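Annotated sample (chain length 335).
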Amino acid sequence: MEQSQWWKYVTRMRYSFQETDTYGFRTAEISSGHKNELYLKSKASSCLTMQGEYGSDGLFHCIVGGLRYDDFDKAGKISIGKISKILEGVRIARITQGITSQNIDFGLSVLYVRSHYFKVYPSFYSLSQTSSLKFTTFTSHIGRTSFCVDANAFDLTTGELLATCSTHSVFVSMETRRPTPIPPEMAQMSQVIPTEDKRPVSGPDFPAQPSACFTQKRMVFPGDTDANEHLNQAVFIRFCFDCASGAALEGKLPSFVHDIIFSDAKTVWVRYVREAEVGEELTLSCWEDGDQKQTVWVEIYQESQVIGQCQIQFYDDELNNSTSKSEEARAISKL
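Output written by the structure step:
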């Protein structure tokens, strides 16, 4: 999961590029010519240079250019896990700029991601190595101990909306392991831009696991973890999709006859319950919804404890070529 002792983590991130610059950078540019480059070490995609700034519209704007060969999976698409990792970098760039400009002290607090909700439009699956992406992010809700950040991903060339994501995060005390109030400096600097839908996203009612469903075991390795040695949120998503692929290939998902990687996800909802650490063996279970065609559920356990839950809704085959310019997409594009 994405959890950070932010000040120590950001300090480490600032200097990590010196250790890894031999691998090369993916350069981001922004039209304003803003000079404050933020170097983010990404376990999912070697190194990433991000640059961004707050606009007069209250949004944080960030551009990622030059998608690479290894950003794409064997189906020739960017996976949800990959875009989630890039969005993690955008969120870190955003909060880092707030820390450095406002001298915010997070004290003995850890930031935990509680949930993600992705909406993905068909044109997202047509991206290529010549594509560049623009991200806008904003605070959509702020409470006493938690807040939501919404992100929109656009094709930089066409301006077309590709995907949206709402992330619900909570501050937790490192001493008590319980939610702790958001630092007042952060609350004061956060301009809340309300969304049409309620935040945080409540997510679907997770159904009881059927008696007969696909199950697999998976070990957490060091490369699966974040700076706090916990299973990273983007890797968690990859685990869920891998489990669904295994279920499809074994004929356990009636609507899917091939590796699920070749199908296009329409929405992805992820709920993170607790962290998983290196060396722990996880049990993943996957099944297709009995009433909603092409809706897949994944649940992850560590022994008897639930680690997290995921719902993936896929496009019907005949819808995969439809346009992403829905009314909702057009409305968000105006932000």
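Annotation: The radius of gyration is 19 Å.
Annotation: The CA atoms of residues 111 and 257 lie 39 Å apart.
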